[in-house]
């Protein structure tokens, strides 16, 4: 998404090569400002009109991972995401990471897995890493590690979607060690039937909720749509915060 300053330059001081690689990735997959979503077949689909609210019990299960919890649970955001999806990374960098900081204690923020395996071969291994970390109480830390280090594992040096599972899993184990996990348990859990079943259940719930691609976000059961006139990340963020604030004010 265009803005006065390149949104890909924000963060912890990436090198020029990393910035250029990020730009190549975004251009190569046709993601313009995160207004397009990847579908299950690896294409893109434009925004659709908002439909009726999706049942809360479908969007959030008792074992769903939460980045934020609110005492009154007045507002719940649910994001179906793919860790290797460039649009998800754009949303994380420009919107959801900031929402997580700004609305701590005010909203519930739940994440669900929706790996687009055909387009992103490392999406499921990344989801397995996140779920394995969750079994040791460190989901939030792994979620951030995966997105904060996206350029390290998700793309190749020439800006293509990486298919190197062995490299990615090695890096995921490094992240696990950094955040204080039992790495042997992490490795076993990531490959376990329990974790695989959890990811499959998230995918099935996403399909039932009408998810067609990633990222798909719901605010109190209603799909968030930035709007056809939204052109910048500032406008996306304003639209998202306005919906949150309106729900909080009810």
Automatic annotation (TrEMBL):
Annotated InterPro entries: Thioredoxin-like_fold, Thioredoxin-like_sf, Thioredoxin_domain
Keywords of the record: Disulfide bond, Isomerase, Membrane, Oxidoreductase, Redox-active center, Signal, Transmembrane, Transmembrane helix
GO molecular function: isomerase activity; oxidoreductase activity
Regions that span the bilayer: 16-38
Pfam families from the UniProt entry: Thioredoxin_4 (PF13462)
Protein origin, superkingdom: Bacteria
Annotated Thioredoxin domain residues: 48-249
Family statement: Belongs to the thioredoxin family. DsbA subfamily.
Protein name: Protein-disulfide isomerase
Gene source species: Saccharopolyspora hordei
């Amino acid at each position: 998404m265009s803005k006065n300053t390149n949104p890909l330059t924000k963060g912890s001081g990436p090198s020029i090569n990393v910035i250029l690689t990020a730009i190549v990735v975004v251009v190569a997959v046709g993601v313009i400002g995160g207004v397009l979503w990847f579908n299950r077949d690896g294409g893109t689909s434009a925004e659709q009109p908002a439909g009726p609210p999706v049942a809360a019990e479908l969007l959030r299960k008792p074992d769903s991972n939460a980045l934020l919890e609110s005492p009154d649970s007045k507002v719940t955001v649910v994001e179906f995401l793919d860790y290797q999806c460039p649009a998800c990374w754009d949303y994380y960098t420009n919107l959801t990471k900031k929402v997580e900081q700004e609305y701590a204690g005010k909203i519930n923020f739940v994440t669900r897995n929706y790996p687009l395996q055909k387009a992103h071969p490392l999406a499921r291994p990344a989801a397995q890493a996140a779920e394995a970390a969750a079994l040791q109480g460190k989901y939030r830390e792994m979620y951030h590690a995966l997105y904060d280090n996206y350029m390290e594992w998700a793309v190749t040096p020439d800006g293509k979607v990486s298919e190197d599972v062995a490299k990615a899993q090695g890096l995921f184990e490094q992240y696990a060690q950094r955040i204080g996990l039992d790495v042997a348990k992490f490795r076993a859990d990531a490959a376990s039937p329990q974790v695989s079943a959890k990811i499959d259940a998230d995918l099935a719930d996403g399909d039932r909720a009408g998810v067609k691609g990633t990222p798909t976000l719901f605010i109190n059961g209603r799909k968030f749509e930035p709007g056809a006139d939204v052109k910048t990340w500032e406008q996306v963020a304003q639209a998202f915060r306005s919906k949150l604030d309106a729900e909080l004010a009810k």
